[in-house]
């Protein structure tokens, strides 16, 4: 029953995040259809359920509703369940909301909005100060060093490629990643982000959906790496050390 409640809460939060994502680009009042501009009533805004009841079409103009809306809601619900079962903390629930917003917004608009990444960084910094206050200096230092190390790494890529391979937003997100994950999980997240990005990039080129000169947002890959490292980073590191008979 608790898991059901967590999942339904995630669906509701996902619906709210869809509004945030849309209004970051187009700040308006109440929710409305992007095609006919008709204001949506409460029965049009029930997470996931409204999409299926309306068969994926606007009640008023019958234009197709983007799959983004139910997908974000379901993804948020599933992530909330994972956090509840594996990494439970209010902090992780809050950060998940920021990361989902960054994932979708960067995927759609090729930019990581400052209105989202800066608050995420501030919250992560405040969270890390607890380790400083409780004199857990190693955890605090690892987080700060991971943040600056990841940011400098991405800054180097931006400078070498003259902004063609990465953007400034990726540097900010990398800094946040270090604060949030610390060491060594930051390494897992970055490795997976580049690996997944390379696989999908090659796949898009082979499918002739993209070319070598096409712009592909890297934020979604970084966010994916963050979540995998959060839930399974320690196990992956343990597996790696066991595979090569290494010791930490």
Automatic annotation (TrEMBL):
GO terms for biological process: methylation; signal peptide processing. Keywords: Cell inner membrane, Cell membrane, Hydrolase, Membrane, Methyltransferase, Multifunctional enzyme, Protease, Transferase, Transmembrane, Transmembrane helix. GO terms for cellular component: plasma membrane. Pfam families: A24_N_bact (PF06750), Peptidase_A24 (PF01478). InterPro entries: Peptidase_A24A_bac, Prepilin_IV_endopep_pep, Prepilin_pept_A24_N, Prepilin_peptidase/N-MTase. The chain crosses the membrane at residues 6-25, 116-133, 139-161, 173-206, 218-241. Residues 8-84 form the Prepilin peptidase A24 N-terminal domain. GO terms for molecular function: aspartic-type endopeptidase activity; methyltransferase activity. It is found in: Cell inner membrane; Cell membrane. Its EC number is 2.1.1.-, 3.4.23.43. The keyword Hydrolase applies. Residues 93-202 form the Prepilin type IV endopeptidase peptidase domain. The keyword Membrane applies. It catalyses: Typically cleaves a -Gly-|-Phe- bond to release an N-terminal, basic peptide of 5-8 residues from type IV prepilin, and then N-methylates the new N-terminal amino group, the methyl donor being S-adenosyl-L-methionine. It is a multi-pass membrane protein. PANTHER family: PREPILIN LEADER PEPTIDASE_N-METHYLTRANSFERASE-RELATED, TYPE 4 PREPILIN-LIKE PROTEINS LEADER PEPTIDE-PROCESSING ENZYME. Plays an essential role in type IV pili and type II pseudopili formation by proteolytically removing the leader sequence from substrate proteins and subsequently monomethylating the alpha-amino group of the newly exposed N-terminal phenylalanine. Belongs to the peptidase A24 family. This is Prepilin leader peptidase/N-methyltransferase. It comes from Candidatus Nealsonbacteria bacterium CG08_land_8_20_14_0_20_36_22.
